[in-house]
Amino acid sequence: MSDSTFDFVIVGGGTAGLVVAARLSEDPNTSVLVLEAGDVHTDDPRIRTPAFWLSVLGTPDFDWSYRTVPQKSLGNKVVPLSQGKLLGGSSAINGLAFVANSKAAVDSWSAFGNPGWDWDTLGPYYRKSHTRAPPSEAAANHLRLSYLQESARGTDGPVQVSFPEEVSDPIPAAWVDTVSALGFPASSDPFSGDFSGGYVNALSVDPVSRTRSDAATAYLEPAKSRPNLKIVTGALVEKVVFESSGAVPKTVGVQVKHDGKTITYKANKEVILAAGVFGTPKVLELSGVGSRTLLESLGIPVVVDNPNVGENLQDHPCSSISFEVNDGVKTLDALSRQEPEALGAAFVQYQTSKSGPFAVGNYTGSLLPVPDFTGHDGKSTLDKVLQQVKGAAPVYGPFTPHHDAFVHSVLGNPADSAANIFVYAACANTDATDESVGADVMVRSSDSDATPGNYLTLCAALLFPLSRGSSHITSADPATKPSIDPRYLDHPLDLEVQARLLRYTETIIRAEPLKRFIKPNGRRSARAPADLSDLETAKEHAKRTALSCWHPTSTCAMLPLECGGVVDPQLHVHGIEGLRIVDSSIIPLATRGNTQTTVYAVAERAADLIKKQYSLY
User: Fold this and answer.
1) pLDDT in tens, 255-285
2) How far apart are CA 27 and CA 25, in angstroms?
3) I need a surface site. Which of 5, 112, 174, 376 has the fewest CB within 10 A?
């Protein structure tokens, strides 16, 4: 293996990149190079300890710390967007929720013009990527895990997945029981593709060590000693290099800045982009693949004119409200306020028994239809809302009619889940008027508010937003971050749905058995209304508290070129030979829930597609 020439050069050592690198390097005759802009922090306790994930967001050593442009529909709020900048990528800093996509959402990929990308094909790759440890009998009973199905469980995949073994906290059970009593019991195993209801989700936490299981520990660790696999960290990719003498540009390598030097690594077979939803379109545009108008304005020679690059950005907006709990109900507020006694007790518990609040991530939630659109008057209410927003709906590009049709079908089907309402046991700080909120979407009482007491925060996330935005470079300098505009709640239907979800939190906290934990006439999060029952009030609160769930996708969508696409069903970049994309940017539709499981599944399938093309074993 030459120092500068490899069969495959992978740009990005994150969730997708390490999956593909590990799988391709299983063939000892295939040489693989991974280029990662971040560094190695695999053994850092802040990464390995599950509950520390919030503390690393916004930290330059671990996080790209992207920011949106001011969001017009959110009163010009600038929203922080965390993405992992280290070996393991976002799988090393996320909230650890291990939630599968839905069959309906994945089947839509095929319907959009991607034959072979449906649940029957992709579903097995979800299972291939992980091993889900069965919970103990006590945890299964306490956390209401009777919905689990052995047929849907990953049994021998690299990522280690488990459930919390905390059986003394009454809130998760009360949550599941309350959502069930309201008519939304857990319907089946989430990894069956047909799930809805209230539930406790699995976590990417090793069941033995109770540490984070991510792409670095699960995929890279067993493979890193292979002589045909090389990892280079601290490598800033400047551009992909093409040979353009033929009818179709041919990818020949990657130009990188490393240790102050410019190096070109050559690829005998392919360059594989796995730089993430913001990094991958940035690399394409820096390399001359993108909108001619944009590239020429920045003095970048055009290799392929494709205005779809960087478009179709989708993300889950999240709005929230916190409710004070009764005295004696344990929450994480003392830890959020960094009270020494609470921190010390939690640390000792984790060190001695790998249990307690440090051992878990975020795990109590629900995947629901929009309650206003179910029941006796549900269809007429939905029809009225669709008619109301029809004239005001923006058109974001050629994907719009396909996107609209899918979202309307989900909203009209009470068996589908368009919403994620989840609970976090601490007061939120989401009503910031400037960037001081940092990356804290769900937790940490703000210093200025110094919110006393203990709280439950209910968060409402819109799973299939119709608002679509963009991520584009603004400079030919590879060190400059892209301009990111998700256009949160820009589409009027998004605001209608988000407000109704937020309004439904009032119904949830007033229902038994959760009601018995909420303090009557208790305090709420700063500037929250005393009652969200009024729809217009709920709309204003939804906009004021909206932030990101950090689930962005689709900036290099797998779609036909005329439909807004950047890659074909083989994940080849349209109009270029030897260039493929394997990360979250190719996912054409926002995922139903957290993105990490779908990124693992896509990367696993991408590896098989590459192996098949090149007859690798």
Assistant:
1) 999 999 999 999 999 999 999 999 999 999 9
2) 5
3) 376
